[in-house]
Amino acid sequence: MLFNVLSLALQAVARRSISSSAVRQGNKVPHKQKLFQEDNGMPVHLKGGSADALLYRTTMVLTVMGYVVYELVKAAYPQKKE
Q1: Which of 22, 31, 55, 71 has its C-alpha lying 20 to 30 A from 5's C-alpha?
Q2: Would you say the pTM of this structure is higher than 0.90?
């Protein structure tokens, strides 16, 4: 019984969000194409704005931190010489 109620509620929410989101949003593709094709000297992975810059910096920080942790673990447990 509870499963049926939850299922119906989920279907109603999904139907409402799918049908209303198409009405509110316009076609953003031409604007994005224009943005990414203009020659302003900026790399393509940063042309999306501040969210792209934040994602890029976060990825670089996590990569460097992962490499540092890897090297520290490798140095903490030296290889056995046989």
Answers
A1: 22
A2: no
